[in-house]
Amino acid sequence: xxxxxxxxxxxxxxxxxxxxxxxxxxxxxxxxxxxxxxxxxxxxxxxxxxxxxxxxxxxxxxxxxxxxxxxxxxxxxxxxxxxxxxxxxxxxxxxxxxxxxxxxxxxxxxxxxxxxxxxxxxxxxxxxxxxxxxxxxxxxxxxxxxxxxxxxxxxxxxxxxxxxxxxxxxxxxxxxxxxxxxxxxxxxxxxxxxxxxxxxxxxxxxxxxxxxxxxxxxxxxxxxxxxxxxxxxxxxxxxxxxxxxxxxxxxxxxxxxxxxxxxxxxxxxxxxxxxxxxxxxxxxxxxxxxxxxxxxxxxxxxxxxxxxxxxxxxxxxxxxxxxxxxxxxxxxxxxxxxxxxxxxxxxxxxxxxxxxxxxxxxxxxxxxxxxxxxxxxxxxxxxxxxxxxxxxxxxxxxxxxxxxxxxxxxxxxxxxxxxxxxxxxxxxxxxxxxxxxxxxxx
Length: 442
Fold this sequence. Notes:
This protein is an alpha/beta fold. Helices cover 55% and strands 6% of the residues.
């Protein structure tokens, strides 16, 4: 029987992990503008599961009026932290930072009581601190997929005998068969002097399930005149650690990322993963209390750009030909709400001739992926996904485009689950497809 962790009422919160600002708690006007945008409030209709309800409870805990209760801990864990409420808030309350501080503090408190990290934290730390382990896990997944074992389990429905959840969790996208090197153009010294040099973080999940997206990103950047640097090392941005209570682990990984790209002398760091990009843009906050790394992290964060953001700022070569495609676009939460990037991918998609674009109803509504939310809170994630799938089906599109690996995996899962005639693609892959069809990239 699983032992419940209970935090006593006199446990002191927000000492080791301070709030971003107490003023943020006060600035919430309780106007209710956030309520229509909050997936968990829409699912339950309960104030405790709304952004303003959670802010009220966080303030009560900070002020010592309330101890840590199971109800509070559950409410914070139930939050997807999609930050749609931040976009809707007329007072500009940084809800995402508030709830993340609460999540980190809960994790820290549980560690103090256990005297050791929890199971999820230990697994994440083991996998993402040394990405060779993650690659080994990916090889096992790939064997499971290509050996016929996955097909056998799905066709016979054996997993259903144990758990419907287990049966559905088995519907994962294919892992790459082998780790081939990325193809990057070698430039002469003269060409190098004339070109802007950009670094690409190949990522963790992205490198395992969507290596083609990384190669498409390289191709598109080179097509538009940039020198591309891809680190040989397998490096993680630290977001998984940071969002799950291990700030020390996140800082260690972040320092490594900063050092590698700084030594490479890149002018910009390009991301094709919305979650990684959002976290790396906040390195300056991660190191705000670190005098040694604060300025370096702040300078680094200024160079971080999402691939769609970068192309929009610098310009891109407009492809002239593509097969006719009906396309819609899903906004990744960490792109639209955290990085405030919504217009750029749409304009690039619409610039491709032959595209028939349909705007998705509630395009900026969370798909339920939310980092590892769809793993640790599967049933809740499925309720959020159902709404997204209904809206996607209504578009009649052949292709749904989105710029985050977590969203891509979740939408692929949803398409299989609901048997939709639709494919998922990253916007940079769609752009590269148009270039390839034009015959200018071979």
